[in-house]
């Protein structure tokens, strides 16, 4: 499966935008143009699938902070709307999931005033003959298409803060919904890594097989140990580290109850430097390497400003890691770095998409309203 398009309406700086997506999606722009809001929109779709949508919006400050603050058309409702389109080339299917969320009505019964309320959801499947609605949610009710092709009520009433897609994800009543949810649940988002003294990157972790890096990097040592012990292959990882860190060599201890790692530096060949001793840049590069070269490739890897705190000499090796990961995963990158954008373009092909502000709203330079690029360049 692959994410084919993302649409967002009335979310922060995203007035109304639809983007067609490819294997590598690279967004570059100045501070404050809304690059991170595009990234965040994807995270909130995943939160809907996981059942944490309301909590994630609340953590941003509630609906009043999350809603588009600019003017709305007459009679246009104040609602955040996200839609994702997913293609399943193996089975010749495409999926379309949409969620709408708004505020509690002024005359509603007592409740959480600024908690997001899910107003509507829909899930459609297209087998090539046109989209068919498989699930529809209005208010607390869910309707599912049954084996005879009729929409029937699902026997559970939802709270306004709950998402229908998360309730149906493990029901087994709609295999297409379950497949879509498994796909979205495996997306990985990496928004920087802590490198302070208390950062989990600097401490050993439990010795448990780790096919994927946690989003906070807490199991990084276990990810490295999994590559070393389970796959018995760290060639790509070793090469990337040697190039980026001046010939350094990763030292992976045999895991017992805990997993740990260190670095051997060429100027100090008899000493292993523990994770506690590494510089912020060294540690962040190692975490990015773990994210991009993990044992199992997630279907989508999203990186938000991965160049932060990296030495300029690490940019080219990072681009190499991204190119390697793109062979198995769809990539989404938000960056300020022209150098990283150009390095990724040279290795992967697609040119960067420049994010701008247009009439106060986030937009992609040269993009049509349909989400396609105006110049017709497929690489974009």
From TrEMBL:
GO biological process: DNA synthesis involved in DNA repair; double-strand break repair
Residue intervals passing through the bilayer: none
The ATPase AAA-type core domain, residue ranges: 24-104, 179-340
Organism: Ectorhizobium quercum
Top-rank taxon, per record: Bacteria
InterPro entries found in the cross-reference section: ATPase_AAA_core (IPR003959), P-loop_NTPase (IPR027417), RecF-like (IPR014555)
Protein name per UniProt: AAA family ATPase
Family matches, as PANTHER family: DNA REPLICATION AND REPAIR PROTEIN RECF, SLR1056 PROTEIN
GO molecular function list: ATP binding; ATP hydrolysis activity
CDD domains: ABC_ATPase (cd00267)
């Amino acid at each position: 499966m692959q994410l084919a398009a993302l649409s967002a309406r009335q979310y922060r700086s995203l007035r109304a935008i639809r983007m067609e997506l490819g294997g590598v999606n690279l967004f570059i722009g100045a501070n404050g143009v809304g690059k991170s809001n595009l990234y965040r929109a994807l995270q909130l779709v995943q939160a809907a699938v996981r059942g944490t949508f309301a909590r994630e919006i609340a953590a941003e400050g509630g609906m009043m902070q999350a809603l588009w603050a600019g003017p709305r058309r007459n009679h246009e409702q104040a609602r955040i709307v996200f839609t994702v389109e997913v293609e399943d080339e193996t089975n010749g299917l495409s999926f379309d999931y949409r969620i709408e969320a708004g505020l509690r009505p002024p005359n509603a019964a007592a409740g959480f005033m600024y908690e997001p309320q899910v107003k509507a959801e829909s899930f459609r499947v297209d087998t090539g003959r046109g989209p068919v609605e498989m699930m529809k949610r209005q208010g607390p009710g869910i309707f599912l298409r049954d084996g005879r092709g009729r929409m029937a009520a699902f026997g559970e009433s939802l709270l306004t803060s709950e998402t229908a897609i998360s309730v149906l994800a493990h029901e087994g009543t709609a295999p297409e919904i379950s497949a879509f949810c498994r796909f979205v649940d495996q997306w990985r988002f990496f928004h920087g890594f802590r490198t302070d003294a208390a950062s989990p990157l600097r401490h050993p972790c439990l010795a448990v097989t780790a096919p994927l890096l946690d989003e906070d990097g807490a199991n990084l040592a276990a990810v490295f140990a999994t590559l070393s012990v389970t796959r018995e292959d760290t060639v790509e990882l070793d090469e990337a580290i040697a190039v980026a860190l001046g010939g350094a060599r990763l030292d992976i201890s045999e895991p017992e109850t805990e997993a740990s790692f260190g670095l051997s530096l060429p100027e100090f060949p008899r000493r292993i430097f523990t994770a506690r001793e590494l510089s912020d840049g060294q540690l962040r590069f190692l975490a990015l390497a773990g994210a991009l070269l993990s044992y199992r490739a997630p279907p989508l890897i999203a990186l938000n400003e991965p160049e932060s705190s990296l030495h300029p000499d690490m940019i080219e090796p990072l681009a190499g890691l991204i190119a390697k990961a793109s062979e198995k995963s769809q990539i989404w990158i938000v960056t300020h770095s022209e150098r990283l954008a150009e390095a990724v373009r040279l290795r992967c092909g697609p040119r960067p998409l420049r994010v701008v502000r247009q009439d106060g709203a986030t937009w992609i330079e040269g993009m049509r309203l349909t989400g396609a690029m105006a110049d017709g360049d497929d690489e974009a």
